[in-house]
Amino acid sequence: MDQNEKKGIWKVISASSMGTMIEWYDFYIFGSLAVVISTKFFPADNPTAAFLSTLATFAAGFVVRPFGALFFGRLGDLIGRKYTFMVTLLLMGGATFVIGCIPSYETIGFMAPLLVLVLRLLQGLALGGEYGGAATYVAEHSPKNERGYWTSWIQTTATVGLFVSLMVILITKSLMTKEAFEDWGWRVPFWVSILMVIVSYYIRKGMHESPVFAKAKSEGNISTNPLKESFGHKYNLKFVLLALFGATMGQGVVWYTGQFYAMNFLKTVQSVDSSQVDTLLGIALLIGTPFFVVFGWLSDKIGRKTIMMLGMFLAIISYRGIYKQMYKTTDVTLKTEIVDQTKTVPSIKELKDGKLDSLYTTTKAYTDGTTLEEVKTIHFENGKVMVDDKGKDKIETKVTKKINSSDRFMLILLVLIQVIFVTMVYGPIAAFLVEMFPVKIRYTSMSLPYHVGNGIFGGLLPAISTYLVTTSKEAGDPEFYLEGLWYPIIVAAVCLVIGMIYIDKKINTLHE
């Protein structure tokens, strides 16, 4: 590849990557703020149910991604790659901005969660059309023997989008008080996205159509019915199913375990301070992101299958040990409390309609530098303690831990190991999928298995795993915090077996 060709492909990658990164930012800002959002758009009388409802709404955006893949994939194979993912960019950006403008549950009642759900569905549809277009566009500009390397730059965008979302949240938090952020400041990251979308739109506007697609179109060799050709013919359908159950299904759960489940686990199960979690996760992502390119490049040398299957295998055998160590790292029952520094401060918070909250804030310090704040809230109405649906007193306890530098280093390392697994399964996947299908139905054929694997199997992981952890904790299981891992372990194991048996190492030469 000469200098002009390299310059051209870097322009393609930059334009595609920036837009895709922004779409991931838009998509994940919701997940990054799930804890705060649960208090704004859902009833506040049951925080656990509100958080689970938020995760379910987050997952809904993933569930509809396959439908977006079908709709926009068909458009991409009919009218072209460029114009299709211009539409997805604007749809995603608009939906994200509007989420930041929706009034809270206290203001408009059940319209709040309903509107959020509708907008999450629009986000999911948009993302379903974005990835296949960007990956196909870059692959069709790349030399055949370097597709893994060049498409791996697109693979970094999902993690970079999550990283940027965490950084925007941290910056916003640092510029205002905790109360202001929880009141209205959480909306700022949603509003910021519209500025990034406008910039990306103008960059993408100047891009040219994929040369491979343009050539096929000029020769009259494009599909008149991409859906029928992709899924109605047994030969191609076989590869769609193989891509799903032998690659993307496992890749999806490894991706979300290593990033989103790790974040939710630290914030909700381990009760680590949200800003500390965002910081340590951001550091792990920053260190780990270059490995997407490393493994993409390596897949050009030794094959896509070897790297992806090894990543799944390492994740399967390591997850329980990693999360057990993560839990122990911040477990205050294993630390020594400085008893004479423990203090409890009572306070009253007056609400509307004869309701008030009685708060007891207890702070504790430990010899290793860890601090803990426990806020016990008792809800009163007309002088009596309120009761929940089960007839029990409405008493909530919220714990927040601030961990020491040694524990932060350990957690960064443990999350980084999971991010490396992510880069192994995700770095080569774009080139792997592109090479499985012919040009005229490539956008449609590769988008569906990718978004079913990631959108459904991966996207449901936070909600399913959190549910498993919650029910195990209520049942008194001493290792309740590990139960949520059974979902990704089982899904990845099934995918590993199918991939090892049925995926040919030379599958990337099918449509050369």
From TrEMBL:
MF annotations from Gene Ontology: transmembrane transporter activity
Domain Major facilitator superfamily (MFS) profile: 12-511
PANTHER family: MAJOR FACILITATOR SUPERFAMILY TRANSPORTER, SHIKIMATE TRANSPORTER
Membrane topology annotation: Multi-pass membrane protein
InterPro entries, per the entry: MFS_dom, MFS_sugar_transport-like, MFS_trans_sf, Sugar_transporter_CS
Chain segments annotated as transmembrane: 21-42, 48-71, 83-105, 111-129, 150-172, 184-203, 239-259, 279-299, 306-323, 409-434, 446-465, 485-503
SUPFAM superfamilies xrefs: MFS general substrate transporter (SSF103473)
Cell compartments where the protein resides: Cell membrane
GO CC annotation: plasma membrane
Xref: Gene3D superfamilies: MFS general substrate transporter like domains
UniProt-recorded name of the protein: Putative MFS family arabinose efflux permease
UniProt keyword terms in alphabetical order: Cell membrane, Membrane, Transmembrane, Transmembrane helix, Transport
